[in-house]
Structures are given as C-alpha cells and as structure tokens.
Design brief:
about 475 residues; 19 helices; symport; mainly alpha
C-alpha cells in the first residue's frame, strides 16, 4: 500500500535523485492522458462511415474521455489519500487498457462511449492526478521546470500517436488500431510501479526502531501500558477523522478565480485539435498529411513547454505566474481567431505552429499556477475539485462545436467560438488576479500598520510607566 499524503509531507523534496524517474513516468502519463483523446480523432472518419453518425456523435468519444479525466478528479483524490499513488496508478493502467481493448469489439457508438470513453477515461484519470501529486512531492525549487518537462509528454505523444494511429488504421482498420492502442496503455502500469513513496526508507527504519523499542519494553517491567493504549486509541480516531477530500481549499479567492478561468478555457481549448484532422480531410488534404498536422502541433509544443518552464522558474517571473498564464491564453485565442479562414494546407501548417506554441505555454503553466495558489499540502484536493468543475466544460465544448459543423457545414465558426472563449478567459484571469493581489497587498499593509501602531502604543505605555515609577 502507498504511504499517505501526510506522511510524505514530512520529507523535504529532494529536487532530484529518484525524482527524475518519477518525472519521466509523469512525462509518459501526461502524454497518454492529454494526447490520447486527440490522437484517436484520426479514426473518426471510419467510425462515421461504419456507424452512420455525424461529427458531433464521434466528438463525444473524445469529450467523454476528457470528461472522465477531469470529472474523476475527486474520486482520484480520495483514492490517493486513502491508498497512496502507486496502487491507484496500477489500477488506472489496467482500466485504460481494458477500455480500448473492449472498444475494439463494439458494434455501435453507444458501446464506444462506455468503453473508450468512460472506462479508458477513468483509467487515465487514475494515472494522471497521482503522477502530478508525486511530482509535487519530489520537486520544490525545480518544480516549474519539472512541470514543464512532464507536460512535454503531451506534445511528444501527440506527435507520435497521431501518425501511428493513421498507420494502424490503414493496416488493421479501426478495430485493430484500438486493440493495439489498448496494449500500449499497459505502459501506464509500469509508470505507476516506479512511483516510490517519498521517505519510504525512513518510515521503514522508524517502524523497525519502534518494533525494537516494543521488544525492550516487553523484557522490562512497564507501568505505562494503559497510557500507550490510550495513545493508540487517539491515533486511530485521528486517522478516522482525516479528510479524504478537503473542501476548505475553496475558501481561497485566488483558487475560485482560477477555477472560473479554467472552466472557460476548457470550453474551447481542445476544440481545434479534436476537429482539425476531419477539417483538413474535408478540404481535400490526404489522410496522412491531415494526421501530420497534429504532429506539427506536437513538435512545436515539445520545445514550448520546457522553455516556458525555464522562464517560469525565474525569480522575476515566478511571483507573477497568473499573468504569464493569461498571456498564453490570449495568444492561443488570437491564433484561433486569426486562422479561422485558413483553407489551404500551408495556412493550416502556420496555424499549427502558433497553436502549438501557445498551447504548450498553457500546458506548462496551468498546474504550476495551481500549486502556487494552494501549496503542496492542498494540491491533491484542489486538483480533484478543479478537474471536476472542468469536466462539465469539456462535455460541452467539442460536441457543441461538432453540432455547429453538422448544422452550418462551416468550420470557421468553431475557430471563432474557441478563440473567443480563450481570450475571455485570459482577460478575466489577468483582471481578477490583479484585484486579488491588490486586495491581499492592502490587507498586508493594514496588518503591518496595525502592528506598528500597537507596538508604538505599548512602547509609550512602558515609557509612561517608567516616568511614574521615577517620580
């Protein structure tokens, strides 16, 4: 069983060592979690042909998968706080693989929703959140760059899985492709196996010392057995009272601002990537060239995330992280709006370059901003609650965009819609963060002034007392 969150908090982050193995595992988990729902979009044309459904129907597969990734956040938080990260990730890897293998035997779109959408999405959720939590325990000073490197797994896997999916589709059909993809997801179990709880050896040696002390006490006469029994009862009661999901983090106004902004972001962030391949194919772009567009986004994203993580780690930037994230959101929204009229392959490639750059910045910063708001101790509960709120948005965004395409036969609308939502979120986050920062600064200044006044008053009282004594 994995160690509890409170136990791991007692050990200082090593910022290296086994943390690099944890970082590499988080890199793989992030790659599967974020890239997989987009990469399977290369199968949508075949699914539409076999099941006789439209764009919005197939878009639900990715939406349900992403919704499970987000909506299972509280469940994942509870399981991590109860059992630890490692066992939860092992179960998640098995579920993710079983969902895609089961999807290869489905006979209608509803069965795909349940297997590829619900089961695989739940499995990815049980891997994704624990990997982020472990990363926060192993890194502190290097946390921005660690988050940036782990987030780079998304573009790397997107660059690889999209062309691979097209090759598998051409060679084995969508059923064979789903079966092989399910086998690849078993690698999540390997990543979960290396998530060693921080401070495991210390806890083990401490337990050994406790057992030795117990043996010595049995050899010697003891008068404190009743006290020890009472202490054990108190410890058991405290374990029962431990919160598996801490809702008190929602008292932080900065966290509320972050949640509202992320809800708006998720409405439009994934829409272009999920429908991009189908859009390119409808414009007459060959299938493999259309699938390569996602790889272009991934290639640019690969360099954008670690670079952004390095910049975010600078002393002058780290305190202003919310504004940096706001800038990334504005750039992503402007990219969508300015590229709405792209029709030829060259225009789509230019869109993918700028989209990959801004998308990578968002991916590298979003969880670093959250960690900065709530800290390591509250990150597990805060992340679960944030992902739950975002689940509703991800269920609305891509299917709504697909419905627009089915109704108006015009992809231009979805770029305007997605871009507008990202720009609104960026402006809101910047203004609200400034107001919260200004309010906090005002409170701190008032508290300092009150402390100074109280100190001066006490000093004057002492002086008056001394004068009276002298008289």
């Amino acid at each position: 069983m994995g160690s509890s969150v409170s136990e791991r908090n007692r050990v200082d982050p090593p910022d290296g060592g086994w943390g690099w193995v944890v970082l590499f595992s988080g890199f793989i988990i992030t790659g599967f979690s974020y890239a997989f729902p987009k990469a399977i979009s290369v199968y949508f044309k075949e699914l539409m042909r076999d099941f006789g459904c439209g764009y919005s129907d197939t878009a639900w597969i990715s939406s349900i998968m992403l919704a499970m990734l987000y909506g299972s956040g509280p469940l994942s938080s509870i399981m991590v706080n109860r059992f630890g990260c490692r066992p939860v990730m092992l179960i998640g890897g098995l579920l993710a693989s079983a969902g895609m293998i089961g999807a290869s035997f489905t006979s209608n779109i509803i069965q795909l929703y349940l297997t590829a959408g619900v089961i695989t999405g739940l499995g990815l959720a049980l891997n994704f959140q624990p990997s982020l939590i472990m990363l926060g325990y192993y890194f502190d000073k290097r946390r921005p760059i660690a988050n940036g490197l782990a987030a780079a797994g998304s573009p790397v896997f997107l660059s690889a899985l999209s062309p691979l999916g097209q090759v598998l589709l051409d060679c084995f059909g969508w059923r064979g492709g789903f079966l092989i993809m399910g086998g690849l997801l078993l690698n999540c179990c390997t990543c979960g196996a290396v998530m060693r709880p921080l401070g495991y050896k210390v806890q083990k040696s401490a337990a050994r010392d406790t057992s030795n002390d117990h043996e010595l006490k049995e050899m010697l006469p003891s008068k404190s057995e009743e006290e020890e029994n009472n202490l054990e009862k108190v410890q058991k009661k405290s374990l029962k009272k431990k919160k598996l999901l801490d809702f008190s983090v929602l008292r932080d106004k900065a966290l509320i601002v972050y949640i509202v902004a992320k809800f708006i972001v998720v409405l439009g962030l994934f829409v272009p990537t999920i429908l991009l391949v189908n859009y390119a194919k409808d414009q007459g772009v060959p299938d493999r060239d259309a699938a390569f567009l996602l790889s272009i986004i991934g290639f640019v994203d690969i360099f954008a995330r670690p670079t952004c993580g390095l910049v975010a780690g600078l002393k002058c930037v780290r305190p202003k992280m919310p504004y940096f994230l706001s800038l990334a959101l504005l750039l992503n929204g402007l990219t969508d709006v300015c590229s709405a009229r792209s029709r030829d392959y060259t225009g789509l490639v230019i869109f993918c370059v700028f989209f990959g750059l801004s998308y990578g910045m968002i991916g590298a910063l979003q969880f670093e901003v959250l960690m900065g708001i709530v800290g390591t101790s509250g990150f597990s509960s805060a992340l679960g609650l944030v992902l739950l709120i975002e689940a509703a948005a991800v269920l609305i965004g891509p299917p709504s965009a697909g419905r627009l395409v089915d109704t108006y036969k015009n992809y231009e609308l979805i770029f305007y819609m997605a871009g507008g939502e990202l720009m609104v979120a960026g402006i809101f986050l910047a203004i609200a963060s400034y107001c919260c920062f200004k309010l906090q600064k005002h409170k701190d200044t008032s508290a300092t002034q009150d402390a100074d006044i109280e100190g001066n008053t006490n000093h004057m009282n002492h002086e008056c007392t001394d004068d009276m004594d002298n008289n």
